[in-house]
Amino acid sequence: MKVLIKKLSLWLPILSLLVCLHNLSGDDDKNLLLFLTSPLLLWLNPQLTDLHYSMKNELLWQFLLYGIHFFSWLLFGIIIDWVFSRYKAKS
What we know:
By secondary structure, this protein is mainly α. The protein contains 6 helices and no strands. It has helices spanning 2-5, 8-24, 32-36, 39-43, 45-54, 58-90.
């Protein structure tokens, strides 16, 4: 358990969930915090805007954004933890 607490692959998705819950509460009505805390969403913004206008269900659109946000931070955390473990193994 002590090892898991030190991993970024745990903390980055938790922070991502907090940002998603803040957005879901309605305080971030323009999705600024959601997009500015996720480099992947910011990079995909033009493509996602076209997708948003073609989707009929707003709730499905929100969960698509939350899924991209969460899984991108989970992937970043796993990659960073892997790089740190490789660096520690060489030392």
